[in-house]
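Researcher: Please translate sequence to C-alpha cells.
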Amino acid sequence: MIGLVTGLLGALFGVLTVSAETLPAYLSLPAVKWCGILAVVLWLLSLLCALVVVTPRRWQSDAGKPETQSEVFKAMLRHKSRWLRDSVTLFAGGVIALGVVLVIALASVK
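Model: Translation complete:
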C-alpha cells in the first residue's frame, strides 16, 4: 500500500505539473483542481493508515496463559485489519479522483 500510494502520487503530480510556458486548458478547470487536491489528501491519509499498520507496537499478554495470548493476537489482528481496511478505502477514493483528473485531461487534448 505504501509503495502504491507513493507511486500514484508521482503519477498525479506528473499530470498536474507542466513544463510549457502556457498551461494546458484542463488545469484551469475547477473539477481538475478539486479532484487533484482530493486525490492527494486521500492518498496521504491512506499512507498514514498504512503506516499505523506497520508501526511496531507493544502488545502485553501473560506468557503462562495461552488464552490471553490468543486474545492479544486477535486484538492485534483486529487493530491491523481495521487500519488496513481504512487505508484501502481511502486509496480507492484517491484512485477514483485521479481517474477523473485523467479523463478530463485526456478529453481536453485536441
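Researcher: Any highlights?
Model: Residues 66-108 form the longest helix (43 residues).
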